[in-house]
Amino acid sequence: MALSEVHWDHQIPLPKLAPVRAKLTVALVALLCFINSYDGEFVFDDSEAIVNNKDLKPTTPLNNIWTNDFWGSNLSSNSSHKSYRPLTVLTFRLNYLLAGGLQPIGFHMLNIVLHAIISALMIDMFAILIGGLAYDEKDKIVNLAPKTSLLAALFFAAHPVHTESVAGIVGRADLLCALFFQLSFLTYCKAFNTGSEGDDRFSVRWVVVSLLLCAAAILLFLLTVGDVVRTGLLTRLALMALGGLAMLYARWRIMGTGPPAFTEVDNPASFAENIFLRIVNYNYYYSLNAWLLLCPWWLCFDWSMGCVPLIKAATDWRTAWLLLLWCVLIGLTSQALCSQDSQRRRTLTLGLVLLVVPFLPACNIFFRVGFVVAERVLYLSSAGYCLLLAYSLGHCCCRWNKYKKLVCVAVLLLLCVYVARCALRSHQWRTEQSLFTSALSVCPLNAKVHYNVGKNLADRGNTTAAIRYYREAVRLHPSYVHAMNNLGNILKERNELVEAEQLLSKAVSIQPDFAAAWMNLGIVQNSLQKFEEAELSYWNAIRFRKKYPDCYYNLGRLYADQNRHLDALNAWRNATVLKPDHSLAWNNMVILLDNTGNLGQAELIGREALKLLPSDHTIMFSLANVLGKLQKYKVSQHKHFPFFPPSAVLYHRWGKLELAKKHYELSLKLDPEAPGTRDNYNMLRRKLDQLQRSAP
After folding, report:
1. How does pLDDT run across 557-584, given as a tens digit for each residue?
2. 73 contacts 48 by C-beta, under 8 angstroms
3. Residue 629: C-alpha distances to residues 435, 595, 622, 625, 649 (Å)
4. What is the pTM of this model?
5. Are 189 and 133 in contact (CB under 8 A)?
6. Which BP terms does GO give this entry (predicted)?
7. CA 30, 32, 33, 39 torsion: positive or negative?
8. pLDDT of residue 243
């Protein structure tokens, strides 16, 4: 099938570069846009997907990544989001192994490099979509639209909406999806090679390889678009249909049949009872996504919880935006179908397909999604937008040739704005503090934004400011139980116990299975000496979270306060069974047994604890007191306590006061904040002073 050079391509105000040079240029622009995020921290969802994900650690069996979701939870769990991305988790694990731990630089650099590679490959993909598939005499693909494909790839490389996918490490899932799609598309094209005599050659092998590379069944549709004029169509469609069905079935078997559980705050429109208003709000969400592609200035890490108020009436002025969106889409579609220019029909059709099809899984049509707007889902769809934008500029240059210089200036200005916006936005993604605070001006009605700002402030020790943001989060969303829980914790630490109890009680009344809030409520009630209520709260926490060692520890403290010594020991023992390195529970058992005169049992518990925590100074200190009372000075000193604080205690009890003083001083040099050491040292000095004054 003879293909000619795209007629508007020579009008594009860009130089015609050699293929390798064009790819290097696009890759360098991509690197320039996002390189300042290379030394960023783990932020937002990175904490759950990477920092707290046990599947990244070498001690976790590699097979777990095939049965767990993206966040490390088992796919069969009701709490799983069913986000099955084992290859992404595998790359995270590789980063972990290469860096010897959680070093964010390696994670960020790989994301940036992936984006640069994807941007460079976009030139080949755009060239085929615009100009068709053609080969030279050396069987190499000929780019019939070198300038248009280069311009579209530059727009893609520098589009600011990609910041979340590139600067946020969890965005690697979107990067890998795009990369596998490109490889699948380009490999599929390798199945066809029109020779010099015009004979069509079709390779089943390359189609099979393409199917193996295909990351999602929805992208298979894009591979068949434009293929209808080829020979062997039924054979290829059959192969692709079988491959697609096989992948869908495999994914269904792995994920299970149960859909993920989302709440109204995640996607309020999907919970609207009126089907008309639900459709209207869905379409308004589409218009917001379109606006982010057109004007990527208002970017936010989260668009839920009141950020986008629901449209509740047809008279709402915002309905104009969704009407405008559909007018534009219908206009483009009519041009794609009815234009007399075959090259225009091809470019518009495939540009619209590339824009719309990757977005379909996020459109709430087939299933409910867990977000209102998510910039990361626009990563691949933006390629379609960039293709349409480059075509539009080429069309303008053809139609208004005398304004070609003006178009050239506009293109250069737009690229500069894109690069500057990417640099600013990727800088905001470097730390949670800058990321969260940047959202306050974009989504001031978003309770989650205020919650995250407050949490970040609390983590940095600024509890006074954190309280203000937590209160605002609760005001904006009165049933925000996590904000209530965190606010209650801060008030508890500030000894404002009555308000803390009210907040935590409200949280558990709204969400009865909120185990952490039940435990915190029990702590507050214990401080208020409401012992029966506290015990009930602790047991509720354990009922909703079976393996909760911290709750058993706090329950043991409650029993100890009530002199229910046996119950306290049992609770602390449960804590150590569930979490063998629970230092506080071990230490409390030793101290309680010591105080009740059970020195032999205290010694056994202390020795058992030191086998698990051989460097725990607190446990050694408590055990030293027990051994001192048992007068086991020499044995305990040499076998268990190579550190100075316990040795000092032993010398102190043994009556070797000068040696005790020496060990206390050495201990304080090593650790001036060692618990109890300063008090014991001062006590010893007072005793030595008394002895000196009483000496003749």
Report:
1. 999 989 999 999 999 999 999 999 999 9
2. no
3. 56, 11, 11, 6, 11
4. 0.80
5. yes
6. endoplasmic reticulum unfolded protein response
7. positive
8. 57
